[in-house]
């Protein structure tokens, strides 16, 4: 919950019973008819808290838990409690409770925002709920004459604490970050704040730095951080640059490496199987990335048109796709009209969802004689998913399957299968 108004804390503490989990991970309850958002709480908790009114809603500062919920577990990460780390939101819930909450978040968004009644599947998963992340982005701050790398406190966004470990992140990523800090004397010295991201690649890791106007020590940094095979930099006034690269193979940029490969592969397997169940001869893969899904469909004999805005990913996809399938550079809103018709359309937009032009094109296609048999929408944001589905009244929602891509956090990935209403 967030708002633009200045919140005023009420003088008296009140008891609040938590009923559910909101999309951002806060617990939700009521006090005196007011909806209350309480971070780090669980359904069934009774808490004593001071409320800060933000419009018609309230945010709780929990003073103590009067009655703990049976859904609670002890968070294994010390930063979650000691430093109030904002990287995870629901580490204090059991895994079953986390997945139940995510299913309800998706269902609530579809019913409340999209006005769609959907029988949402149970949340699907794969692999382990810990050490799954192959990417870790941290804030870099100067403190006491040296750099620290860490995350923000959930209740004080300006506060960065020094991260010792991150139990949801692959230990190899954490090891690279330790190398980065050991070589931090070679980071840009004209900035007090930077932002860095480590991603595991098939061999080694990529490091991407944001900030600073000049980086004279980039070569010395690269030589010192031996696990890093590709070094990217986005200066404070400029575009992202690949500064140094010792990769042997032609592979896409680190942006297209899956954060949770086990769940990503499970989702892709399910998606490809569902697409092929419609017997398509042609398909459009919108927001295709490096073409992993497009390649799987093409290998099954489908003629695929992949659309992707990132030039490097387009180049890589073109080198992988067989004859008969193509990768188009540009935005989906600019390219979809030319790519249609197709038997199946897949869209997998970023968190902001679809450009308004895309639902317009899909609405027109739904009523066309040669229109798609099915539309698959892969979403990482239930709110924008619901908004976009509300813009697609000519499409019938057939199936909704959430995936637990990021255990311990409130984030949920969702795959929706839709068919044109004319054929339902």
From TrEMBL:
- A UniProt-annotated Pfam family: tRNA_U5-meth_tr
Tell me the ranges covered by the TRAM domain, including all copies: 5-64
Q: What's this protein's name? A: (Uracil-5)-methyltransferase
Which spans of this chain does the record mark as coiled coil? none
- InterPro entries to which the protein is assigned, alphabetical: NA-bd_OB-fold, SAM-dependent_MTases_sf, TRAM_dom, U5_MeTrfase_fam
The lineage, from the top, is: Bacteria, Pseudomonadati, Gemmatimonadota, Gemmatimonadia, Gemmatimonadales
Q: Where is the active site?
A: 380
Residues that, per the record, bind S-adenosyl-L-methionine: 258, 287, 308, 348
Which terms does the UniProt entry file under GO BP? Answer: rRNA base methylation
- GO: which molecular function terms? rRNA (uridine-C5-)-methyltransferase activity
Please tell me the species this chain comes from: Gemmatirosa kalamazoonensis
Its keywords, alphabetically, are: Methyltransferase, S-adenosyl-L-methionine, Transferase
CDD domains, A to Z: AdoMet_MTases (cd02440)
Protein family per UniProt: Belongs to the class I-like SAM-binding methyltransferase superfamily. RNA M5U methyltransferase family.
């Amino acid at each position: 919950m967030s708002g633009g108004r200045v919140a005023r804390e009420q003088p008296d503490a009140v008891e609040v019973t938590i009923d559910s989990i909101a999309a951002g991970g806060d617990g939700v309850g009521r006090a005196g008819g007011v909806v209350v958002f309480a971070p780090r709480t669980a359904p069934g908790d009774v808490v004593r808290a001071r409320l800060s009114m933000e419009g018609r809603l309230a945010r709780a500062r929990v003073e103590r838990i009067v009655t703990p919920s049976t859904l609670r577990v002890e968070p294994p990460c010390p930063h979650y409690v000691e430093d109030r780390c904002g990287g995870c939101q629901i580490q204090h819930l059991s895994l079953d409770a986390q997945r139940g909450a995510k299913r309800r978040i998706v269902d609530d968004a579809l019913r409340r925002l999209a006005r769609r009644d959907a029988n949402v599947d149970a949340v699907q998963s794969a692999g382990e709920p810990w050490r799954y992340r192959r990417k870790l982005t941290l804030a870099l701050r100067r403190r006491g004459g040296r750099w620290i790398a860490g995350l923000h406190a959930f209740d004080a966004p300006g506060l960065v604490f020094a991260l010792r470990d991150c139990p949801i992140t692959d230990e190899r990523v954490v090891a690279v970050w330790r190398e980065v800090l050991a070589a931090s004397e070679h980071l840009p010295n004209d900035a007090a704040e930077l932002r860095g991201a480590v991603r595991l690649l098939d061999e080694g890791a990529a490091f991407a730095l944001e900030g600073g106007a000049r980086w004279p020590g980039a070569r010395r940094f690269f030589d010192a951080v031996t696990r890093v095979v590709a070094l990217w930099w986005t200066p404070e006034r400029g575009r992202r640059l690949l500064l140094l690269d010792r990769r042997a193979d032609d592979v896409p940029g680190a942006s297209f490496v899956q954060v949770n490969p086990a769940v990503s592969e499970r989702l892709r397997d399910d998606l490809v199987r569902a697409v092929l169940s419609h017997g398509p001869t042609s398909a459009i893969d919108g927001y295709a990335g490096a073409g992993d899904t497009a390649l799987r469909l093409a290998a099954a004999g489908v003629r695929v048109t992949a659309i992707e805005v990132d030039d490097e990913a387009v180049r890589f996809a073109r080198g992988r796709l067989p004859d008969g399938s193509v990768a188009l550079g540009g935005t989906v809103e600019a390219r979809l009209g030319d790519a249609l018709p197709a038997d199946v359309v897949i869209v997998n937009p970023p968190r902001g969802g679809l450009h308004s032009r895309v639902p317009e094109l899909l609405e027109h296609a739904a009523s066309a004689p040669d229109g798609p048999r099915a539309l698959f929408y892969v979403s990482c944001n239930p709110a924008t998913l619901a908004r976009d589905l509300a813009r697609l009244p000519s499409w019938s929602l057939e199936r909704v399957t959430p995936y637990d891509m990021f255990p311990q956090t409130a984030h949920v990935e969702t795959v929706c299968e839709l068919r044109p209403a004319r054929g339902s």
